User: Which sequence fits this backbone?
């Protein structure tokens, strides 16, 4: 279950919106050559279970922005945003670089994103799950996202509501990239 798989082969009902394969991301640059989400198989399986739970209990679906992220992309991101609250330092590596983290939101049956108070990759204090100065519906959406993801083995970052590490991320290493910098 440590193989790296395309998420679509595990669960085609999770919506994919790979913003780093477009210019619509905090760097303003296309970072990925293709919009395919890869994850460790056990991480993809767990995300699929969370998605089924959201669908059956709440009529929501997961929309994923990012999964596995190559280390050389992490280095590019760090050059633009060298702040460890918002981009992991590539000398330590991100859990995304291990295929063991996901950036997600929730959508309703019409595909509309639920309100979590900020957009994806809004690098401000409002992105923190500890920021409480929001109306109740937003706080409730945040609570639901965190609780269900915890139930399926994911741990939320305390500076980004959308980022979850898989609990066993240490089991997976960062793939070596020969000749890329
Ligand atoms: C860049 C942002 N989407 C993200 O994933 N940040 C965390 C901290 C990371 O780089 O691991
Ligand atoms: Zn992330």
Assistant:
């Amino acid at each position: 279950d440590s193989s790296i798989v395309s998420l679509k082969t595990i669960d085609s009902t999770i919506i994919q919106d790979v913003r780093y394969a477009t210019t619509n991301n905090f760097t303003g640059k296309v970072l990925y050559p293709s919009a395919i989400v890869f994850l460790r198989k056990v991480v993809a399986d767990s995300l699929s279970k969370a998605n089924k739970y959201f669908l059956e209990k709440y009529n929501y679906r997961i929309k994923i922005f990012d999964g596995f992220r190559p280390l050389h992309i992490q280095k590019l991101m760090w050059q633009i945003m060298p702040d460890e609250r918002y981009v992991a330092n590539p000398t330590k590596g991100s859990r995304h670089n291990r295929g063991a983290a996901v950036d997600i939101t929730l959508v309703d049956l019409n595909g509309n994103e639920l309100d979590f108070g900020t957009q994806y990759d809004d690098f401000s204090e409002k992105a923190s799950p500890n920021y409480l100065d929001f109306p109740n519906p937003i706080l409730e959406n945040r609570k639901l996202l965190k609780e269900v993801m915890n139930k399926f083995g994911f741990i939320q970052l305390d500076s980004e509501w959308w980022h979850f590490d898989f609990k066993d991320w240490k089991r997976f290493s960062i793939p070596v990239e020969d000749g890329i910098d």
